[in-house]
Specification:
The structure holds 2 protein chains of 2 kinds. By secondary structure, chain A is an all-alpha fold. Chain A has one domain: MetI-like (MetI-like fold, Orthogonal Bundle), CATH 1.10.3720. The longest helix of chain B has 18 residues. In chain B, α7 packs parallel to α8, α8 crosses α20 and α14 runs parallel beside α16. In chain B, the strands form 4 sheets. Chain B has a 6-stranded mixed beta sheet with strand order 6-7-8-3-9-10, with helices on both faces. A 6-stranded mixed beta sheet of chain B has the order 16-17-18-13-19-20, with helices on both faces. Classes of the chains: A mainly alpha, B alpha/beta. At the A-B interface, α8 and α9 of A face α13, β16, α14, α15 and α16 of B.
Chain lengths: ~300, ~525
């Protein structure tokens, strides 16, 4: 017998991991697939923007002023004669980046924090979770506004600030998952094999707790994007000439009676993304629910 | 005339993978005043058949394709949901396996008992309560006056099952369907409940359908036995015929799977591998409360190469002892010497080294495997962790383990949910053996398995024990199983050792009352 044995024999049956199984179920959910497709297109557009945008993002044409959609400007122009499509494309880069990066920050902190608190338990858990409770109790909007005022408006800071408040719920979910999982016999088996706590958390607990976390993540991204839109609306987020969907909507709202397209198109882009994420999140929740696997 | 006559019943399920016939044109009779046992392993269709009679199956996915079930001159399968509701709970009552999930935790037992009475018989609440008190006394609840207003969580498992029985009987049904009513109970409680059901059935002259996976459970009480396999009735007959002259090979297989006899005694006196001295494992119960003394001053030795059986009911501390030896729960005091080293004081690298030499096999093969890891990952993990195999040889090591535990190599990339319970237990055994341990704690390794699978796994464990030269601590509530596999047996009661000795000595000449009680409780000891 050689070690090539396994790969050579053709009759090794391929297993279906729970991830594969979930993906199979997700594929049957049309709304979720639609959401996934919309997101993929938007992300691709955001990545390719510098090459495909029809105009430079700060190119003004004051002679033109605000003009409705036309052949030259598909989605019209704003009061400075800037192409709205270009603005939306560049704004999408910022909005999506804020959504994904801030959520990723929240994900990493929250999962690590919650997993450690849940697995170690006892005093460590108590201290870690009380800290979460305290942060929960802080009026986070004021917290972010304060950060922005003190350190100046800065995109990186915005990511960090939003991520820093969004991880709290993530940590709580993770802790609950880990607490119920560590009662299970396969964790005891891992302990009796002599695995270190770090390995047990990484290999045995986190993968099994990820289902609800993934679902929550897809629902966090839209709320983070809304938060950014809100901060930009207040004038605390992104600074012109850089732009975001929130900023565009804020300007559009000011002039919506004269130039409705300035509100409609950025609003549609944001709404479509939020819908897509919510559909995907819903689909993932159904797909990852093990109880649904017997259908 | 039979009380219930089922003919030609077929129930199909529509699943993702097409239609499955769960019950395939079966027929049986239930006579008034008799107990008809329906025996079969999981997936045999025994429960589905009975649930379909009362319209308790969700349709879809289930559909009743054909058949009739004549009860009292009327065909149950032709009745509307409204008519069935009248019958259910009044003429036909059910008892389920898990008494905890079948009682509403937010209602007192008394209120739950009177509900069906008020619904079906239109009596006043006071009359109903009077009746409920009578019944609780009849099913053997001590002091019904005091307990009727308690909530289900205040009762023990056996008491809850008595309440369930009272609830089933309160409307004077003529047919009682009991679905594995004792499977979740300890062996001594099981014996009491079986006796209660048989007694009530005689006194009230009702018909009983007793569903079970275990032939030995019904050996003392069944009048007729129906054996089901994969949706078919393979054999039917009275108790004598089934136990003494079973014709169908499947019935014979079921009978053969009932563990019997004891292991031949070991020849030579061997050295002690493990010495447990004054072991105490207490669990704190919150501030001010007395700690729960799960294991209280227990001392014993395990000799190299022997299988030591640990028997006791739930709460006797038998599982906690196993976990204490492996340092899976914190030990309060006492010594556990493994090959001369005190395990209780180890930490860090020393503990990891010791863990390699002591492994555990768990009860629930569904919970003891990480659902996200394939067989390969599960078995490779211990091999790599302890440097038993290198990256290059690990594949060979995994396949060797699969051969040893009797799993086809083709399954190496499969995940736990794609296996049956027995196969999963094989994977778990493989994982425990991967580190080449000297000592294995097996915590009820077969009690979650069907009888025939149970026999196979026990055989496998005995064989691997010899092959690997294992010393084993075999924890179980089932005396017959322990006698079959163990060289010596320790009987535990409330955290203390009550008696110890070889299987034959305990069975033939028990010294303590508690041991005698346990032996008395083994179902079917007369017929087997």
């Amino acid at each position: 017998m050689t070690s090539a044995n396994l790969t050579d024999t053709a009759q090794v049956e391929q297993g279906t991991s729970l991830w594969k199984d979930a993906w199979r179920r997700l594929r049957k959910n049309r709304l979720a697939l639609f959401g996934l497709a919309v997101l993929t297109v938007f992300i691709a557009l955001a990545l390719l923007t510098p090459w495909i945008a029809p105009y430079a993002y700060d190119a003004q044409n004051l002679d033109l002023g605000a003009s409705p959609p036309s052949a030259a400007h598909w989605l019209g122009t704003d009061i400075f004669g800037r192409d709205l499509l270009t603005q939306i494309l560049y704004g999408g880069r910022i909005s999506l980046a804020v959504g994904f990066v801030a959520t990723a920050v929240a994900l990493v902190i929250g999962v690590t924090w919650g997993a450690i608190a849940g697995y170690v338990g006892g005093r460590v858990d108590a201290v870690m979770m009380r800290l979460v409770d305290i942060l929960y109790a802080l009026p986070f909007m004021i917290f972010i506004v304060l950060l922005m005022v003190v350190f100046g408006r800065n995109l990186l800071l915005l990511f960090l600030a939003i991520g820093a408040v969004e991880w709290l719920t993530m940590a709580r979910i993770m802790r609950g998952q880990v607490q119920s999982l560590r009662q299970q016999e396969f964790v005891e088996a891992a302990v009796s094999l002599g695995l270190s706590p770090a390995t047990i958390v990484r290999r045995h607990l986190v993968p099994n707790a990820l289902g609800p976390i993934i679902v929550y993540t897809t629902l966090t991204i839209p709320s983070v994007m809304l938060l950014e839109a809100f901060l930009s609306f207040l004038g605390l987020g992104v600074q012109p000439p850089a732009t975001s969907w929130g900023l565009l909507i804020s300007y559009g709202a000011e002039t919506m009676e004269e130039y409705p397209w300035l509100l409609i198109f950025p609003g549609a882009a944001l709404t479509l993304t939020l819908f897509a994420l919510n559909f995907l999140g819903d689909g993932l929740r159904d797909a990852l629910d093990v109880r649904g696997s017997g259908d | 005339m039979p009380l219930l006559s089922v003919r030609d019943l077929q129930v199909d399920f529509t699943t993702r993978n097409g239609r499955i016939t769960a019950v395939n044109r079966i027929g049986f009779n239930v006579e008034p005043g008799q107990i008809t046992a329906i025996i079969g392993e999981s997936g045999s269709g025994k429960s589905v058949a009975c649930y379909s009679l009362l319209g308790l199956l969700p349709t879809p996915p289930a559909s009743i394709e054909s058949g009739s079930a004549v009860f009292d001159g009327r065909d149950l399968l032709q009745m509307s949901e409204r008519e069935l509701r009248e019958i259910r709970g009044r003429d036909i009552a059910m008892i389920f396996q898990d008494p905890m999930t079948c009682l509403n935790p937010y209602m007192t037992v008394g209120n739950q008992l009177v509900e069906p009475l008020i619904y079906h018989r239109k009596v006043t609440r006071a009359q109903a309560r009077e009746r409920a008190l009578e019944l609780l006394a009849e099913v053997g609840l001590r002091d019904p006056q005091a307990t009727i207003d308690q909530y289900p969580h205040q009762f023990s498992g056996g008491m809850r099952q008595r309440v369930m029985i009272a609830m089933a009987l309160i409307n004077e049904p003529r047919l009682l369907i009991a679905d594995e009513p004792t499977t979740a109970l300890d062996v001594t409680i099981q014996a009491q409940i079986l006796e209660l059901i048989a007694e009530l059935q005689r006194k009230r002259n009702i018909g009983v359908i007793f569903i079970s996976h275990d032939l030995s459970v019904v050996a003392d009480i069944a009048d007729d036995i129906v054996v089901m396999e994969k949706g078919h009735v393979v054999e039917r007959g009275d108790r004598q015929a089934i136990f003494q002259a079973a014709e169908h090979p499947y019935t014979q297989k079921l009978l053969a799977a009932i563990p019997a006899g004891s292991k031949p005694p070991a020849d030579a006196v061997r050295e002690d591998l493990i010495q447990v001295r004054n072991l105490c494992t207490w669990f704190p119960q919150g501030r001010g409360a007395e700690p729960l003394r799960a294991v209280d001053d227990v001392s014993f030795t395990v000799q190299r190469g022997e299988v030591l059986g640990l028997v006791g009911e739930s709460g006797s501390g038998k599982s906690t002892i196993g976990r204490s030896l492996l340092r899976l729960v914190p030990v309060t005091s006492g010594e556990v010497l493994f090959d001369g080293t005190d395990v209780t004081g180890l930490a860090g690298a020393g503990l990891k080294q010791m863990r390699r030499r002591m492994q555990m096999i768990f009860q629930d093969p569904y919970a003891s495997l990480n659902p996200r890891m394939s067989v390969y990952d599960t078995l490779a993990e211990p091999l790599l962790l302890h440097g038993i195999a290198t990256r290059k040889t690990v594949e060979q090591g995994v396949l060797q383990l699969m051969d040893d535990v009797g799993l086809a190599r083709a399954f190496v990339r499969k995940y736990p949910h794609e296996f049956s319970g027995g196969q999963r237990q094989r994977i778990a055994i493989g994982r425990a053996l991967a580190t080449r341990p000297e000592f294995v704690v097996a915590d009820e390794p077969v009690s979650a398995l069907d009888v025939t699978i149970q026999a196979q796994i026990l055989e496998l464990m005995l064989e691997l024990g010899r092959e690997y030269g294992l010393t084993m601590l075999f924890v179980s509530h089932d005396l017959a199983v322990v006698r079959h596999i163990a060289d010596r047996i320790l009987v535990l009661y409330k955290g203390r050792v009550v008696e110890q000795g070889t299987g034959d000595a305990l069975f033939n000449a028990p010294q303590e009352d508690y041991t005698r009680q346990l032996l008395q409780a083994i179902p079917g000891r007369g017929l087997l």
